[in-house]
Amino acid sequence: MNIFIIEDDFMQQARIEKIITKLLEKHNIVPKKFEISGKPHKLLQAIEEKGVHQLFFLDIEIKEDELKGLQVAKQIREIDPYASIVFVTTHSEFMPLSFRYQVSALDYIDKELGVTEFESRIEAALLHTHNKDNSAVSDDSFYFKSKYAQVQY
Q1: Which of 2, 4, 21, 128 could crosslink 33 through cysteines, CB 3.0-4.6 Å?
Q2: Model confidence over 70-107: pLDDT tens digits?
Q3: What is the DSSP letter of 62?
Q4: Alpha-carbon distance 31 to 109, whole Å?
Q5: Cα 107 to the center of its chain, rounded Å
Q6: H or E stretch including 55?
Q7: Are 44 and 76 in contact (CB under 8 A)?
Q8: What is the largest CA-CA distance in the chain?
Q9: Distance, CA of 139 to CA of 111 (rounded, Å)
Q10: Confidence band (pLDDT; 50, 70, 90) for 46?
Q11: 72 touches 58 (CB < 8 A)
């Protein structure tokens, strides 16, 4: 699994990193890549793969640009239509706007939630993406075999 975080506030960066590191250890998950940045262009350059194994935690307001996170999510979705995107923000008023950007966010986590709820929402997103990554191809496929052909879709 690849995990990416965009957060321009260093305190929030450290908070999210600490929670995710703790949860990875708790669930014995070893990420292939774990990138944290305050600069969207750096994160976008770090995306080298596509697939259900990618998890992005994005702040919506980056460097006083209120909608930058939504714009980055749209760019991520263009690069990787299968990735899981989670918004972590204080701007819950922008949640309806995320539908207009058509980024199919997995969750929308308010930074002002209590510690336990905040951590459990991050854990749910992490486990959801990890379980998608570990599901067998056959779980989501159709298989047909005859004496003339064999098809798996």
Answers
A1: 2
A2: 889 999 999 898 999 999 988 777 777 777 778 888 99
A3: B
A4: 22
A5: 9
A6: strand 54-58
A7: yes
A8: 63
A9: 35
A10: confident
A11: yes
Distance (Å, rounded) from C-alpha 50 to C-alpha 115? 32
d(CA 20, CA 85): 15
Which burial class, exposed, middle or buried, applies to 142 when counting CB atoms under 10 A from its CB (0-12, 13-18, 19+)?
A: exposed
Query: How crowded is residue 38: how many other Cβ atoms within 10 Å of its Cβ?
Result: 17
For residue 62, pLDDT beyond 80? no
Which domains does the chain show, CATH number per domain?
A: 2-152 (3.40.50.2300)
Please give the helix or strand (H or E) that residue 17 lies within, else none. Answer: helix 10-26
Whether this model's pTM surpasses 0.70: yes
Measure Cα distances from 7 to 37, 105, 134, 145, 153 in Å. Answer: 6, 17, 27, 49, 38
Cα dihedral sign, 62-68-74-79: negative
Q: Which residue has 């930058």 as its token pair? A: 68
Instruction: Give residue 23's identity as a one-letter amino acid code.
Output: L
The amino acid that residue 8 corresponds to is D
Residue type (1 letter), 44: L
CA distance 70 to 55: 15
The CB-side HSE value for 90 (13 A sphere, CA atoms) comes to 9
